[in-house]
Structures are given as C-alpha cells and as structure tokens.
C-alpha cells in the first residue's frame, strides 16, 4: 500500500527529523519526501498492511506539522480501459 500526503515540512532538516520519527514509530513503513514539489510531498509505503493515514496525520500534528492525504487523481487502469472500450463501441458508459 502507498499513501501520499501534502505537508508543510519545508526543509531537509525538518524532513530528516520527521522521517526518523516515522521510521522509529511505524517500523514497517518506508517514507520519503519530495520537497521540490509545491505540496511538499510525503510518500509512505507499507508492504505488510494498510497505511493508517489518520494516525499518521495525527502523528505529524504532534510533531508540529500539518499533513493531508492527496487524492488519487489517476483512475484505475481497468476503469480507463472500460471507458475506452465503451467509447470504441459507441456506447455511453453510463447506459
């Protein structure tokens, strides 16, 4: 599972501190920041269980930071494929 968050972490020193805290607290999470992105992205991955997004948001809040889940704007491939197939057949997907 992967979850992506918009944060207010603004520099590498803050990011390192947050990452250390995440890795020490959520042992099976792998996390990284993209501070070049305007949303100061925190990407969290866990191979063993679903990511507890609300818990992670509260955890960052306790550290003095704000985080919110970024919605997945890319529809699943199966959805895109079925929309394409309907269009090719001249059928409205909502029909």
List keywords for this structure.
95 residues; alpha+beta; Alpha-Beta Plaits; 3 helices; 4 strands; globular
List the helices and strands and how they pair.
Layout: E1 2-7, H1 12-25, E2 29-34, E3 41-46, H2 53-62, E4 67-69, H3 77-88
Antiparallel strand pairs: 1-3, 1-4, 2-3
Question: How does this structure look, described?
Answer:
The protein is α+β, with helices and mostly antiparallel strands and 95 residues long. It has a single domain (2-88), classed as Alpha-Beta Plaits (2-Layer Sandwich). The chain contains 3 helices and 4 strands. The chain has a 4-stranded antiparallel β-sheet with strand order 2-3-1-4, with helices on one face. It starts with a strand and ends in a 7-residue tail after the last helix. The relative contact order is 0.21.
Strand order of the largest sheet: 2-3-1-4
CATH third-tier fold name: Alpha-Beta Plaits
Mean pLDDT: 86
- Would you list the SSEs in sequence order as H and E? EHEEHEH
* Helical stretch tally: 3
CATH architecture: 2-Layer Sandwich
Tell me about the largest β-sheet.
Answer: 4 strands, antiparallel
Please give the number of β-strands.
4
Proportion of residues in extended strands: 15-25%
CATH top-level class: Alpha Beta
SSE class = alpha+beta
| Domain unit count | 1
Termini Cα gap: 33 Å
Helix content: 25-40%
Write down the overall geometry.
globular
Rg over C-alpha atoms, rounded to the nearest angstrom: 18 Å
């Amino acid at each position: 599972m992967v979850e992506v968050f918009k944060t207010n972490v603004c520099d590498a020193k803050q990011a390192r501190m947050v990452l250390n805290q995440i890795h020490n607290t959520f042992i099976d999470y792998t996390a990284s920041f993209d501070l070049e992105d305007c949303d100061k992205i925190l990407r969290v991955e866990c191979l063993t269980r679903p990511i507890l997004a609300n818990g992670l948001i509260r955890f960052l809040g306790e550290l003095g930071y704000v985080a919110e889940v970024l919605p997945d704007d890319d529809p699943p491939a199966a959805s895109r494929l079925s929309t394409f197939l309907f269009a090719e057949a001249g059928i409205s997907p909502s029909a």
